[in-house]
Amino acid sequence: MAGWFLQRLLQAGFVVLAMTVIVFIGISVIGDPVAVLISPDADQAERMRAITAFGLDRPLWAQYLSFLNGALHGDLGRSFVYNEPALKIILQRMPATLELAVCAMLLATFIGIPLGLYAGLKPNAPLARVIMTGSILGFSLPGFWVGLLLIMVFAVQLGWLPSGGRGETRVFLGIGWSFLTLDGLQHLVLPALNLALFKISLVMRLVRAETREVIPQDFIRTARAKGLPEGRVIFRHLLKNIMIPVVTIIGLEFGSVIAFSVVTETIFAWPGMGKLIIDSIHVLDRPMIVAYLMIIVLMFVIINLLVDCLYTALDPRVRMGK
């Protein structure tokens, strides 16, 4: 087990190193941040001062090595716009995005799995058909349109929930959280639901498909023939065997929810990392963009590592080298 975990860590480290090259070089060859950030009326001397201040006068390989050295010491560069460490600015926005992503994935898990399980166990029931039709809508409707619709219905017409912002927060472990206050929870409902709709449909359809595949297998028939209660057959034998692909999808989708919550954060004015990266792209703030992408890469790598560890917990046969 220790050897398997060490091998996974080495693979993760290699992926992160490769991504530093791809991300840094890819961002560095796009556009000219000096032309975006300084006045068009600036003379050549001012331009040269800005280029030197941003460190753009050095060769690309020297800039990369400087970035890599800084990254190893927890410094992902200094924002051209804010003139502060990029990592510090991103970490200030990260709790809001994490809070939104966790709530969305909890909704997807606790709604998608039971509904998908029911649709798989009773595929011909009228409610199961309604559930599957609803999942098609969840896949088909664009997130930005659903977000606007939710605001129009629940915020403008009914006035039940606020249309944007994060609301009142309460500090816990030195970080402000919305879910700890009633006002914050009210602000959290609509963006979390908007972000979760696609994921609910995805989890639902996956669980239904896995259930339909596992139900006819011999070990399920044997469990029923032995007279085991139906609840034990489902929760002990069926669920355990369908959870590996479900855990994989939920883990990977959690990373994608964090990385691609840009639209939802923009529609609901949620002050998270998504809004920050959009603003940084507009002004070509390279250090901020590189830092954001590297954090997302690191998140995906850690999530994949955790998913691999969960594999071995759910099915000990899934081991490296076996």
Task: Work out the radius of gyration.
Answer: 24 Å
| H/E series | HHHHHHHEEHHHHHH
Number of strands: 2
Anisotropy-based shape? globular
Q: How far apart are the termini?
A: 11 Å
Low confidence ranges = none
CATH fold node name of the largest domain: MetI-like fold
Q: What integer is the average pLDDT? A: 84
CATH superfamily of the largest domain: MetI-like
What is the helix tally? 13
- Give the C-level CATH assignment of the largest domain: Mainly Alpha
The spatial strand order of the largest sheet comes to 1-2
InterPro entries: BPD_transp_1_N (IPR045621), MetI-like (IPR000515), MetI-like_sf (IPR035906)
Transmembrane segments: 12-31, 96-118, 130-155, 175-198, 242-269, 289-314
GO biological process, one term: transmembrane transport
Pfam families: BPD_transp_1, BPD_transp_1_N
Please provide a written account of the structure.
The chain is mainly α. It folds into 2 domains: 1-86, no CATH class; 89-314, MetI-like (MetI-like fold), CATH 1.10.3720.10. It has helices at residues 2-28, 33-37, 44-54, 60-72, 86-121, 126-140, 143-157, 182-214, 218-225, 230-259, 262-267, 273-282, 286-314; strands at residues 170-172, 175-177. The protein has a two-stranded antiparallel sheet. Strand 1 and strand 2 (175-177) form a beta hairpin. Helix 6 packs across helix 8 (182-214). The longest helix is centred in the N-terminal third of the chain and has 36 residues, at 86-121. The radius of gyration is 24 Å and the shape is globular. The model has no long low-confidence stretch (mean pLDDT 84).
